[in-house]
Specification:
Largest sheet: 8 strands, antiparallel
Helix content: under 10%
Radius of gyration: 17 Å
Order of helices and strands: EEEEEEEEEEEEEE
Structural class: mainly beta
Number of strands: 14
Length: 207
């Protein structure tokens, strides 16, 4: 495990905004180095997400994360709800997997992101942050990799629709080797308690 000074945790200043507004484009005003930023600025509205470096994977069901744009602001979205009843699937488990990061090149890695929901009515309809250090980047080998759930703040039923929630500063400094993080959605298109929409934006990895 890397030893991290208490002073290495300086919270990222995040401007609060409502969902799907122009990116606040969170700026690190502290003396931190940005390792990775993803604002989904090149999105094409309503298409399957194919942002370079990311893997968009339907583990159960066939639906994947999509690219969405609202008032010029791009974001990643997943919903189990389909407007036509015959298209709704019993279970959806979808992953949006990040590029690879070499965690041995720096110390004090911290991740932040923002997420929002619409029509969330059950805690069983989940958006999780997952991390792996043995996923090799080849989706064909996904089932041979191990993933752990990392605590992060995500929307609850008490948040308003499309209200972005700040994840908080997520400490990834204890991981070594090659790391991928991922957003995992679990829901159902036929159960009204599990068919919500989740949105993800303003992802930052810094140290």
């Amino acid at each position: 495990m890397k030893k991290i000074s208490l002073y290495s945790f300086v919270l990222l200043a995040v401007l609060a905004f409502t969902a799907c507004t122009q990116d606040s484009d969170v700026e690190n005003k502290q003396t931190k180095t940005t390792l990775f930023i993803e604002n989904f600025t090149d999105n094409t509205d309503g298409t399957t997400l194919d942002t370079p470096g990311w893997t968009n994977y339907a583990q159960i069901g066939t639906y994947k994360f999509t690219e969405e744009v609202f008032k010029g602001d791009g974001y990643a979205q997943f919903t189990a709800f389909q407007s036509q009843a015959n298209l709704r699937q019993d279970l959806n488990v979808a992953w949006l997997i990040s590029p690879a990061f070499d965690m041995d090149k720096q110390e004090g890695e911290t991740l932040v992101f923002q997420s929002a929901h619409a029509f969330l009515s059950s805690a069983d309809n989940t958006l999780e942050l997952m991390v792996s250090t043995d996923y090799d980047g080849n989706i064909a080998n996904f089932n041979q990799s191990s993933w752990v759930s990392i605590p992060a703040k995500t929307p609850t039923v008490f948040n308003d629709f499309y209200e972005y929630v700040n994840s908080g500063a997520i400490d990834l400094s204890g991981f070594k080797g090659t790391l991928h993080f991922a957003f995992k959605y679990k829901g159902s298109g036929v159960n009204q308690n599990l068919d919500c929409t989740y949105q993800i934006d303003n992802i930052r990895l810094y140290y």
